Amino acid sequence: MEIPALAIQALIILAIFGITLLIATYCTWAERRIAGYLQDRPGPNRVGPWGLGQPLADAVKLFFKEEFIPATANKWLFIAGPSLAMLTALMSSAVVPFGNTILSDTFGTTRIQGIEVNIGMLYIFGVVSLGVYGIMIGGWASNNKFSLLGAIRAASQNISYEIAMGLSIIAMLMMTGTLSLREIALQQSEPLFGISGFNWNIFYQPLGFIIFLTCSFAETNRTPFDLPESEAELVGGYHTEYGSMKLGLYLFAEYVNIIVASAVMSTLYFGGFNFPFQDQVGRLISSDPVVAHNAVTIIGTGVLFLKIFGFIFFFMWVRWTLPRFRYDQLLNLGWKGLIPLSIINIVLTGAIILTYEYFRG
């Protein structure tokens, strides 16, 4: 690969990380505004117009708060916990295709994606599985019984729901024949009922999507699955002893995980960067195929972010609408509900594929 292409790819990676962190920062503002609207009260409205400066004020506060490490805590692991949680959250966004390709005479074909690997979903599962170590290490290193209990809850919860999530992806793999997120997105650009860019997997895997969505709530520790940090029982859960920016890293990591989960669901089930009538839109913009392709790519990136924002709003809406499960209910749902449903979905998908191939042959 030429040096300019490598430089552009590095800039794309930095841009993805920067945009992800910016969105995560303003997710705190959006969550508080949405909560205020649902509870018939104003959200943050003092710092800047409509309270838009509140996330920046909160960030400054976290940066300048006094660093505190409990006397009985394991110092290095206490610091490593939130760092690992944030690192794995950002790493998982590297393989998500945020757009198609940009064509240029100078730089050739540039993908709007950090890295492209043919096992993108396997990579995400591996990185997400490592993320629970950040929670476990932080909870154990705090030397606090509430923190340790929250960390154990997080570990058992993630293990339980990753199984159902992985089984739902197996059904997707049977359909698409690939674990590459880019390939899955490109397959959904085919016409459906004469509409280009509308052959979305949600029409073929509705049960798989519901399972994946439910597991995403559990994997990101969001209500109604926020048992690892339930305030009524565990004070603050695994980050009870944390303050300053170490607490900020845990909180930001949760929002980054929500963004990545939203991006993955949008790519797997809702076409990713594809949108209805994209071929017709390209032809309307320009008769030059290169210009039309680049324009559709830019519009597609904007459409993908709209889908991501829609899922983020759904995460927040559910948080302020549904009550928290009991822990036995959470595990029963995972082991006795979602895992059997995932297996049934795999069997149904296999039967439909075999039936289709039989009649087509």
UniProtKB/TrEMBL annotation:
Q: Where are the transmembrane segments?
A: 6-29, 76-99, 119-142, 163-182, 202-218, 249-271, 291-317, 338-359
Against InterPro entries, the record matches this protein to: NADH_UbQ_OxRdtase_su1/FPO (IPR001694), NADH_UbQ_OxRdtase_su1_CS (IPR018086)
Alphabetized PROSITE patterns for the sequence? COMPLEX1_ND1_1, COMPLEX1_ND1_2
Oxidoreductase in keyword set: yes
This enzyme catalyses:
a quinone + NADH + 5 H(+)(in) = a quinol + NAD(+) + 4 H(+)(out)
The UniProt similarity line reads: Belongs to the complex I subunit 1 family.
Role this protein plays: NDH-1 shuttles electrons from NADH, via FMN and iron-sulfur (Fe-S) centers, to quinones in the respiratory chain. The immediate electron acceptor for the enzyme in this species is believed to be ubiquinone. Couples the redox reaction to proton translocation (for every two electrons transferred, four hydrogen ions are translocated across the cytoplasmic membrane), and thus conserves the redox energy in a proton gradient. This subunit may bind ubiquinone.
- The molecule here is called NADH-quinone oxidoreductase subunit H
- Organism of this sequence: Adhaeribacter pallidiroseus
